[in-house]
Every structure is written in C-alpha cells, then in structure tokens.
Design goal:
CATH topology of chain B: fumarase
Structural class of chain B: alpha/beta
Oligomer: heterodimer
Order of helices and strands of chain A: EHHHEEHEEHEHEHHEEE
Number of helices of chain A: 8
Strand content of chain A: 15-25%
Strand order of the largest sheet of chain B: 3-4-5-6-8
Shape of chain B: globular
Radius of gyration of chain A: 19 Å
Number of helices of chain B: 5
Structural class of chain A: alpha/beta
C-alpha cells in the first residue's frame, strides 16, 4: 500500500499545467521541424518559422505559447494499492489548476455554461479517473484550447461502414475545420465503444504524440492512411496551403456493439500540449 | 509604385500604419505579408455581442483585433496575445464594418456574408499567426483598458503595436487568401 497526500497531487498538477503551457514538448518541436523540412509552400514555411520562433520566445520569457491556455483535461490512473489521504482527489486537482492559473499567469477561460460567468481561476478541470493495477498515481494534463476543441466531431457509423467510411469522416471533419484549429494539427481518433467512449478515446489518443501506437498493425496502417488523406487536403500551416495539414494522427480503439461503429475526432492545434506526471 | 506609405521592409513585408489610410486600403492584396504599426482595439465574443448593440468607443476608421490575452506578468506589457477564431464573430463583423470599422485582425476563414462585407464597406481582414501569442506579445508596446472591465480577458483594450506580422486575408475587393 502506498499513501499519497492530496497536497502533493495539487503541487504536481500546478507545475505540470504551467510547464505544459509554457514549454513546447520536445516531440512536438521535432514534428514541427520535420514539417519545416518537407514543406514546399513558401507561405507555409514562413508560418512554421514563426511557430518555432514563438516556441523559443515562450520558453525564454516563460510566457504561454498560446494565450488560450485551455480548459484543463486531466486523465488520472490510480493504482489499486494507492491510498489518497489529506482530502478529496478531485478538489486537489482543481486546486492545482487554480494555483497554476494564478502563479503561471495563465488565462482564466472557464465559465459557467449558461450564465457565462467566469469561474476566475480556470478550474474546474475535466477529470477522467481509471483504477489500474499497481502502486503509483499517473496524471496527464492536457490544456485544451477551444479553437481546436470546437472543431471536434462524433459520428455513429453503420457497423459495416469499414475503414473507408472512417477515413472519409475524419477527412471531412478536418476539411470543415479548415484554418480555424491552427494547423498543422495533431488529430486524435477514437473508434468503438459507445458515443461517449469514442469521444474519450479520441482525447486520450492526443497524448504521447512522440510514441507510435504499439497496438496491432491494423491501427498503425489506419493512422498512416489517415495522415496521408488529411495531408492531401492542402489546408497547410495556418490554412494557407501546403503539405502539412497534420503533424500526427493517432487512433485508439475499444470493442463496440454488433449494431454500431462510433467514431470521434478530437482535433489538437499545432500547439498541442500534454504533460504526464507519475507519483 | 506611387505612394510613399507603402514601403518594402528587408523581410519583404509591407509596412503599414494604423488607422489604415485610404491609399493603403486600395493597395493591399489578399496574400500579402504586412507589418502593422499603430493602434488596435481588442474585442472578441462577449465584447462584440455588446458592441453590436451599443458602441463604447468610436470605431470609425479603427482596427479591431480578435484576441483575449493571457494576464501580463509583472514588468511586461501584455501576456500571450495571439488571434482567436474570427468566424465566431461573423454575425457582428458586418455590423461593425457598417459603423465605420476599417480593419479586423484575427485568424481563419470567414463566412461569405462577412467576407463580402469587407468589399462593401472597403475594409481589410488581416490574419495574425495562430498560436503565436508569445511572439506577438513582443510586438505590443502598450495596453490600456477601454471598456467592459468585467469581461476580464475579453474586455476591450487599446493596444499600440509595432511591426506586428500579419497576412492580408481579405482585401477591399473582397478577394480572400483562402481558396
């Protein structure tokens, strides 16, 4: 059994949230540099140059990479042998987000949905909790900007629709989004489960962009086909044309019902942020 | 090249001052890279909703920037301040252009009605680089609150910008950079 204090959780969330907003992930920078090498469209290259320069300035000046420091989405994996003491787990996470907002000069973008009243501290976060074997606590924080989040889609395809229909749906979603979500994009695709499960899978697909899917060849092939299809759209960086509409497409699947094929697309902007901490 | 107000900088961008001059309005073409210097007013979703009903400032000839900056750190002029998706303001843009607005800075494609309004009212839509708020913050020299303090980051601020990099998204002939 392992005891974890809620104040440690709050502190880890605080620093992870600030760092993810200010320091661009190494894997993301590598993908952007690769795009810079392959891009032939002059205007697109200029945009990529500005993007990389922006990341450099953000890191040096400790300024958010993008002013939209998102709504925080936190995925928590709690080991079965972990005991959380000192308070409420969810409250500890919300508190960490609030502290990050104040101390890191992040934007408070969270409002009550109907009154549109700002909560003032960017909390609450959207939290997904999973209980897993083991004695550690793993938390992934995604500051999700809404320029890209607004462009997400879910569709309940017919069970026999197959890969072609999935590719068509994803491509159409990206095409419809155009320049709005700040391409080049990181695209998460969730396939299977139920309506809600597919959407969560699509969000989960957005972390660990440096790693390739270890799963079966079927998923890897689909990811490659999706990336090719999306990059043929010629939306390009900032939507000004070019080969690099997406930097990465990641797919996550879950078994589904004989009567359905739920598919969700969650779009991440070029400034996709995610940070994982393990206690 | 006839007019003096248009000059090529070493980076091949045209330098333009705000508020826009009549001569610049005619000259700028969709797709051109421009460095903007002068005054802009920030206004996005919540502020524009109010502005469409009653204007808290004179926008004749003015430029509006679709942004909601992150908070300024001590000793800094502004926080991160990149553009937000302008299509969300499509209902308000033609109203504001009709009231004399001459330039909009934002990001993304606009709907057809909004695009045509730029031609009808002889105004320009500039695209700022999305997600580049840290870099753009360096181009802002001052920031003062103008109206709607209660809206926080969505309040209207007057910004003095200097060599702020943009691309002409829609020109006064209604031509768009997006195909």
């Amino acid at each position: 059994m392992k005891k974890i204090l809620t104040k440690v959780i709050t502190d880890k969330i605080r620093s992870a949230y600030i760092n993810s907003c200010v320091i661009a992930d190494r894997d993301l920078i590598a993908l952007l540099q690769k795009a810079m090498k392959t891009e032939t469209n002059k205007r697109a290259r200029n945009v990529l140059k500005l993007i990389l320069e922006n990341c450099r300035i953000a890191k040096i000046k400790k300024r958010p990479i993008c002013q939209d420091t998102g709504m925080a989405v936190v995925f928590v994996e709690i080991g079965q042998q972990v005991v959380i003491t000192g308070g409420d787990l969810e409250a500890a996470i919300h508190q960490g987000i609030g502290l990050a907002c104040r101390e890191g000069y992040l934007r408070a973008s969270v409002v009550e949905p109907l009154s549109r009243k700002n909560t003032g501290h960017n909390a609450p976060a959207v939290i997904y909790t999973k209980v897993v074997p083991g004695n550690s606590l793993k938390m992934t924080v995604i500051p999700k900007g809404f320029g890209s989040e607004n462009m997400g889609q879910v569709k309940m395809l017919k069970p026999g629709a197959g890969t072609e229909a999935i590719i068509e749906f994803v491509t159409e979603s990206v095409k419809k989004a155009g320049a709005n979500p700040c391409p080049p994009l990181i695209i998460g695709v969730g396939i299977g489960g139920t309506l809600d499960k597919a959407a969560i899978l699509a969000k989960e697909a957005l972390f660990g962009i440096g790693k390739s899917s270890k799963d079966e060849i079927l998923i890897r092939t689909l990811e490659q086909r999706l990336l090719l299809a999306v990059n043929k759209l010629n939306i390009g960086p900032a939507g000004l044309g070019g080969k690099n509409t997406a930097l990465k497409v990641k797919v996550k699947t879950y078994p589904t019902h004989i009567a359905g094929l739920p598919v969700a697309v969650n779009i991440g902007c070029w400034c996709h942020r995610a940070k994982t901490v393990i206690i | 090249m006839k007019k003096v107000s248009v000059q090529r900088s070493e980076k091949n961008s045209i330098k333009i001052t705000l508020p826009l001059k009549e001569s610049d309005l005619c000259k700028l073409k969709a797709g051109e890279e421009v460095l903007l210097t002068g005054v802009v007013y920030t206004a996005r979703d919540a502020a524009q909703q109010r502005m469409a009903k009653k204007l808290p400032l004179n926008i004749k000839g003015a430029a509006i920037y679709h942004t909601g900056p992150s908070p300024s750190k001590p000793g800094e002029v502004i926080g991160s301040c990149g553009p937000t998706t302008s299509a969300r303001m499509d209902d308000y843009t033609p109203v504001l252009l009709k009231k004399g607005l001459k330039a909009v800075i934002g990001k993304g494609r606009l709907g057809d009605t909004a695009r045509k309004a730029f031609k009808k009212h002889q105004a320009i839509y500039f695209l700022a680089p999305g997600g580049c708020g840290a870099l753009l913050a360096d181009k802002v020299k001052s920031m003062t609150l103008v109206a709607y303090k209660d809206l926080g980051c969505e309040a209207i601020y007057k910004l003095k910008i200097d060599d702020f990099p943009v691309i002409v998204g829609i020109d006064a002939k209604g031509r768009s950079v997006y195909r």
